[in-house]
């Protein structure tokens, strides 16, 4: 599977991300197919979601760092009703425990819902959205191109 296989039609119907000033670096990175996070510039702990001030030491220094893009599935659902807007089929919505130690809500693609298991290793890929943007989604580790 290649990263664009997340879009099973010609044109993406997935909604473009809503970009806030604090998370602009994250979405800019996603548009380059890169997965970035924010670290405190003083205590070095991750801040997620991105925000101006560290919740641990109250520092306003921050660093944007590349993340491994790997993690494990913590929990997941497949919303059926009402149909999720921007998806051709009901998406798998999952909480991913990232290697860096924080959790990230995303979609799982490239696997049937019934085959998803807790703790399954996954890796990031990028799905195209309307407006020529990209969003990070996850697939089982090692099933990529
Ligand atoms: Zn800090």
Task: Please describe what this structure looks like.
- The protein is built from one helix and eight strands; from the N terminus they run H-E-E-E-E-E-E-E-E.
- It is mostly beta strands and 145 residues long.
- The protein folds into two domains: 18-67, no CATH class; 68-145, OB fold (Dihydrolipoamide Acetyltransferase, E2P) (Beta Barrel), CATH 2.40.50.
- The strands form two sheets. A five-stranded antiparallel sheet has the order 6-5-4-7-8. It has a three-stranded antiparallel sheet with strand order 2-1-3, covered by helices on one side.
- A hairpin with a 5-residue loop joins strand 1 and strand 2 (46-47).
- The longest helix is centred in the first third of the chain and has 8 residues, at 24-31.
- It is globular, with a radius of gyration of 16 Å.
- The termini are close together.
- Residues 1-5 have low confidence and may be disordered.
- Bound molecules: zinc ion (ZN).
- Residues 40, 42-43, 45, 54, 56-57, 59 line the site of zinc ion.
């Amino acid at each position: 599977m290649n990263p664009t296989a997340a879009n099973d039609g010609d044109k993406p119907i997935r909604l473009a991300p809503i970009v806030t000033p604090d998370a602009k670096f994250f979405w800019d990175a996603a548009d380059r197919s890169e997965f970035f996070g924010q670290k405190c510039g003083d205590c070095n702990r991750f801040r997620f979601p991105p925000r101006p001030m560290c919740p641990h030491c109250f520092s306003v220094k921050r660093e944007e760092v590349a993340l491994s893009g790997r993690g494990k599935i913590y929990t997941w659902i497949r919303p059926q009703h009402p149909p999720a807007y921007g998806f051709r089929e009901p998406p798998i919505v999952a909480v991913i425990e990232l290697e860096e130690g924080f959790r990230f809500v995303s979609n799982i693609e490239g696997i049937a819902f019934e085959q998803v298991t807790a703790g399954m290793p996954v890796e990031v890929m990028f799905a195209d959205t309307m407006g020529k943007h990209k969003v990070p989604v996850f697939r089982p580790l090692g099933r990529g191109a």
